[in-house]
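>> Question from a student workshop board

For tomorrow's exercise we were told to take the sequence and the ligand below, predict the bound structure, and bring the output to class. My setup keeps failing. Could a helper post the expected result so I can at least see what it should look like? The ligand is S-adenosylmethionine.
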Amino acid sequence: MHHDGLPFSPACLRNQEPILTLLRRWLAPNARVLEVGSGSGQHAIHMARHLPGVRWQPSERQDSMAGLAGRIAQEGQQGLAPGAQVAPPVVLDVTEDWPAGPFEAVFTANTLHIMPAAAVPHLLAGSVQVLAAAGLLLIYGPFRYGDRHTAASNGAFDAHLRQLDPAMGVRDAEELLAEAARLGLHLQVDAAMPANNRLLVFQSSSEGRRR
Ligand SMILES: C[S@@+](CC[C@H](N)C(=O)[O-])C[C@H]1O[C@@H](n2cnc3c(N)ncnc32)[C@H](O)[C@@H]1O
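>> Workshop helper replied:
Here is what the output should look like for this input. Compare the format with yours to find the bug.
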């Protein structure tokens, strides 16, 4: 289907519009956004095409960087919303060094169940570190609540992931919220999204260590 040689995620195509709707509501004008685990880069491109003034910083781990860099090089300047920018992607593994902030928002989609459970607190702490005062952390993906999946298909997906690698798996929302609150990240909304996913929006109460 895709002849441009770039990585492509059908899930991105399905969820990009509902995610955009919420980002429109939550992002301040001209927000600087750090995206963690940008993957194919489809979200980066889509959001920058529809959010005037947004300054989007994609990122990926080194071993997945080539495809992302290819998409940003190919599409990162085309058809952007007025004043919007997509920066060249940077290398970011949440357990290692983070880029210098501040960012008004950190956004990540479908990464928490892929990164090892032990990396999730690093995602939260790193976000606190780079967020501007009252900055937002927006996390899209599947979650379970009090040990219950929101759909049987999520339960099957979780079992599949854990079989591939016991460190992967659908995360428990309440555990995530508790860890986030310890770091000064307070839940603003937990929105239902397509395919039994959620979008969690946290606001940082701290000013970020780099400010
Ligand atoms: C299922 S893909 C999602 C990609 C993209 N965000 C999307 O919505 O299509 C999971 C992503 O998580 C990233 N990831 C896994 N572990 C990570 C880590 N420790 N730090 C940063 N990203 C990580 C992977 O590189 C991969 O791009």
